[in-house]
Amino acid sequence: MNKTENQILVIFGASGDLTARKLVPALFNLHQADQLPDNFIVLGASRSDMTDSAFRKKVVSESTYLKGKLEGLSDEGIKNFANKFFYEDLGGSYDTDYSRLRKRVEDLKNKYQTSGNIIYYLSTPPTLYETIAHNLAEAGMNTQNNGWKRLIVEKPFGYSLDTAKQLNTGLQKFFKEDQIYRIDHYLGKETVQNLLITRFANSIFEPLWNRNYIHHVEITNAESVGVEKRGGYYDTSGALRDMFQNHLLQIVSLIVMEPPISDAPEDIRNEKVKALKSLRVMKTDKELFDNTIRAQYTKSVIDGQEVKGYREEEGVNKDSTTETFAAIKFFVDNWRWKDTPFYVRTAKRMPTKATEVVIHFKTPHHQIFQESGLDSKDNKLVIRIQPDEGILLKFGVKVPGQGFKVERANLDFYYSSLAETHVMDAYERLLLDAMQGDATLYARADEVEAAWEFVDPILKYWSSGKDVRMYGYAAGVWGPENSHELIEGIGEWRNPGPNLTDDPGFCVIC
Ligand code: BG6
């Protein structure tokens, strides 16, 4: 276990939902696992008027997100954790003089001997990121002569390529790139990191990981929920910005990348950038028309319950043209992947919540077993990101009896079988990494820009109104019917079930 230096975590936007829902539970897990530094405190800062004890109540003792975790803990134990939390009211605006904040940080630092190491976590609307960075610098709180300073920023990182570039330049005026940690919580998921291990720690996959053996790659990210209470935000974002530009392109980069020369953060990040830069950017209206599909969920009845359509959701414009479903087909212009199609889709209000990558291998180049139906039984490697995390390999076996009939069998691995191992939650892992100065699982400026470079033309085309269609799908189904058209000639999307092996492999029951 790496040693974590003493430090303060300052959370801007601490009265918001993310702090109570994700950050504090992650810190609690680290606390229980004895992974927080000896001298460590959290200072929440935002515009609400709150005392330290009200903040502790809100995010710890009375937090619904911690309830289950606190059960069984003594009052003393809860207090021990809660006492690490402090709060500073910034007044009416984040754009203010931070000298009072600085004084508070200094006082806490001296009292709790946390040293001058500080993480600033920006959990505010992105429009405030640069303002906060600027005000921190004005107050001299970004200097590293007395302990390091790091800045964690939440997504969305930009709204387009231009705004992402502006944001990068804006932040880099006050913090150096190696001080900036852009969080993408998918990179904190064990199963996403395991893509690197699957590829680069196994001699059975990597030799096949290219256009010669892989027919196509399919990624599905499905959520059963709708936009919940985030209609206002979502309506200005949409599936492409909300999930595809960041989380899904991060997964794509790990599938596409070349082997890094080592596991050092910059070696891995350099390869990811190269991968993202090799995605073929769609330029013509025809390409964009043929290779992208967007849709919105419409009202429906799921399990006897009426479910609102997207346009009826709170905060959503009645005539909204924001997509809740996006499916994109694309190619990667490099030696390894030439002519291998990638299909990626993401959506809300699908039948289940599941994210998986499916590597479809080519069928054997010469078919010996004529009647085997092998064409429809390609070898597949299913990498299940969530839930029921694991890996499934589908391969052909002989059906007992005369002749050579082939069926598919499953070889599977489940993370849950590692009963002894605590699988860290994404935020827990990412916070600990930032505390230790490991940026491997954070997105670098050029990575984010390369992802926008690919996404921007699609967004522009979709907003241009040029023969772009907005399809509808009833809440609770696998997207619009025509989404299969994208994958035509190859088959259909694989619709994941709640469990990894929902579609059983071959077995003989006797
Ligand atoms: C967030 C998106 O980044 O990821 C949400 O803003 C989405 O809209 C969420 O629901 C999905 O995360 P996970 O970890 O539940 O797949």
Descriptive account of the structure:
It is a single chain. The protein has helices at residues 17-32, 52-61, 67-70, 75-82, 99-112, 129-138, 161-172, 190-200, 231-235, 239-256, 265-277, 285-291, 426-435, 445-464, and strands at 7-12, 40-46, 85-89, 118-122, 149-153, 180-182, 214-222, 292-298, 300-302, 305-307, 325-330, 342-347, 354-361, 380-386, 390-398, 406-414, 471-474. With 510 residues, the protein is of the alpha/beta class. It folds into two domains: 7-154, Rossmann fold (3-Layer(aba) Sandwich), CATH 3.40.50; 187-423 and 443-487, Dihydrodipicolinate Reductase, domain 2. β15 (390-398) and β16 form a beta hairpin. α2 packs across α4 and α7 packs antiparallel against α14. The protein starts with 6 loop residues before the first strand and ends in a 36-residue tail after the last strand. The structure holds 6-O-phosphono-beta-D-glucopyranose (BG6). Residues 185, 223, 242 line the site of 6-O-phosphono-beta-D-glucopyranose. Residues 197-491 form the Glucose-6-phosphate dehydrogenase C-terminal domain. Pathway: Carbohydrate degradation; pentose phosphate pathway; D-ribulose 5-phosphate from D-glucose 6-phosphate (oxidative stage): step 1/3. InterPro entries: G6P_DH (IPR001282), G6P_DH_AS (IPR019796), G6P_DH_C (IPR022675), G6P_DH_NAD-bd (IPR022674), NAD(P)-bd_dom_sf (IPR036291). Residues 10-194 form the Glucose-6-phosphate dehydrogenase NAD-binding domain.
